[in-house]
Amino acid sequence: xxxxxxxxxxxxxxxxxxxxxxxxxxxxxxxxxxxxxxxxxxxxxxxxxxxxxxxxxxxxxxxxxxxxxxxxxxxxxxxxxxxxxxxxxxxxxxxxxxxxxxxxxxxxxxxxxxxxxxxxxxxxxxxxxxxxxxxxxxxxxxxxxxxxxxxxxxxxxxxxxxxxxxxxxxxxxxxxxxxxxxxxxxxxxxxxxxxxxxxxxxxxxxxxxxxxxxxxxxxxxxxxxxxxxxxxxxxxxxxxxxxxxxxxxxxxxxxxxxxxxxxxxxxxxxxxxxxxxxxxxxxxxxxxxxxxxxxxxxxxxxxxxxxxxxxxxxxxxxxxxxxxxxxxxxxxxxxxxxxxxxxxxxxxxxxxxxxxxxxxxxxxxxxxxxxxxxxxxxxxxxxxxxxxxxxxxxxxxxxxxxxxxxxxxxxxxxxxxxxxxxxxxxxxxxxxxxxxxxxxxxxxxxxxxxxxxxxxxxxxxxxxxxxxxxxxxxxxxxxxxxxxxxxxxxxxxxxxxxxxxxxxxxxxxxxxxxxxxxxxxxxxxxxxxxxxxxxxxxxxxxxxxxxxxxxxxxxxxxxxxxxxxxxxxxxxxxxxxxxxxxxxxxxxxxxxxxxxxxxxxxxxxxxxxxxxxxxxxxxxxxxxxxxxxxxxxxxxxxxxxxxxxxxxxxxxxxxxxxxxxxxxxxxxxxxxxxxxxxxxxxxxxxxxxxxxxxxxxxxxxxxxxxxx
Length: 708
Description:
The structure is a single chain. By secondary structure, this protein is mainly beta. It has helices at residues 3-16, 32-36, 41-46, 412-416, 418-429, 468-472, 538-546; strands spanning 56-59, 81-84, 92-95, 98-99, 104-107, 110-111, 132-138, 154-159, 171-181, 186-196, 200-211, 227-240, 243-254, 265-282, 285-301, 318-335, 339-358, 361-386, 391-405, 434-450, 453-464, 489-490, 498-510, 516-534, 553-573, 577-590, 604-612, 616-625, 643-655, 658-665, 699-707. It has a single domain, classed as Maltoporin, Chain A, CATH 2.40.170.20. Helix content is 8%, strand content 50%. Helix 5 packs across helix 7.
């Protein structure tokens, strides 16, 4: 290869990788010209990655695909990551087979308590894409400093915010984007306006996202799958020497939104979010503090957006749920033994209520949860540093105290039906106050024998207590934190905490020419894994049968294991081309019986071939998944077929401050279902009730981004 070709390929690598999310270990030196254009729109519009800390993978919403409204879809870019898709705005993070509250998901360093018992508003619901800066996922075992109950991993969404300026003069900035796509005739827009100098910063941010029922491959629409969400807020920060203090408030207004794989649809989600954070320095010690609060009022029903139940008005249901939560974190870190030592305390206190009614019968009610509380108080110590020129080490230890309780419950069926009455009385008469002591430990050992090559071995013990729903669901319903398997569930007050023991191995290699390969393997054994198992309680079975499910499940401690491998890879090609991709595989099994774990993503991957020039780019992308035959018999999970789709997109940046990205997803209009999308419960022209929910068909999209 000629030197000029090599230089061209290297230049293409630095820019074409902007089309693909890549691991944080890949870095490129910036030229003076690139440094001057750091804020130019070409880097903002098409860039798909940002460099995170060691062991982190970062995806940004500016990437062309995926372009669904839900921020959780960006997890598809991360090796080992995927999305449990329960609706246009209700996706849950899955990482290496674990999802739900097994993943510690934070938004701007704040842990949020979802308001709905079926997680219609998972944490990333409160990080709309138009105001998202980036989404970061810890690769492998999450550090103890990332938070409590991170048994399945840790993810962090960072929203756009104002930044302090270099002088006394105020500088005004804006970052605005608008766009839409044809599959659901949707519109999304939003951004941030800010003003800042070296002592003060102010910002206003907001977004609006509206879409209709989406069209599936081969024709027909999924009803109801419409969505509507508004989000706005602001923030202020002050900097006095080494001390920074910030205040932020946001309000989320989600209106009528369909969730066809869940028993009800969203009527409204009204949420107040606030935080105060501090960063400072006292001598050699860096200090940080954060206090947060969230208040969520959530209404859902089964008759407004979808056809009312065929059994008639007696089966109409409305569920009004609420959640209040508050958290804190205090940390200090300082240099110690050629490294950094961090000490901290944190906590989160949350309470939940849910009441089911029938608008056709004023007497009907079910108090599903009455002031169900889960409070956690943690402390941790973590040291990271270099052992010598080639070796580095991370050691972490965390202790968490979990305290849970619930008030008494009642329901109209429990006043008239002996089985329901016995369930209520047993719950109210039980010792509902429970506590768990959790201990997490993490060790990560890294070795860099030369530039461009890193090896890592890690081991850890991670824990999680039962959720309020797993412990305090006293009457069988389909509320199950979004499991969406059609089963009725009941809780168990006496559940033991989950304890996971995990080992991982990773190789990160980058050649002098920019070729990179990063395989990671893991094995995780989970004692006392919390899983629904067939209930043998005759009262539970009797009540559940009247509610349409004669084989209800009860949350129980079982034994499980997960193992797999994921890889990121890429290579620069001649003539400004670049190849990048990811491939992920995970296997989840019960150990105590011959069964598989529920809703585990099959072997899947993404490969992108891109061509980047100074003011424009084009890319062809293949997204694919194998069959999933290893499914949970306990949950009645269906197998899924293999599939693959083709996406084509391009960008154009006419000025440094204005850019466009446009393209088409699923070019051949393939008719397919993602295994993690769940089973449809509502008859529509696109998918029959009981069939796997299908993905969107061919869809054209366009976005415009401006920054000043």
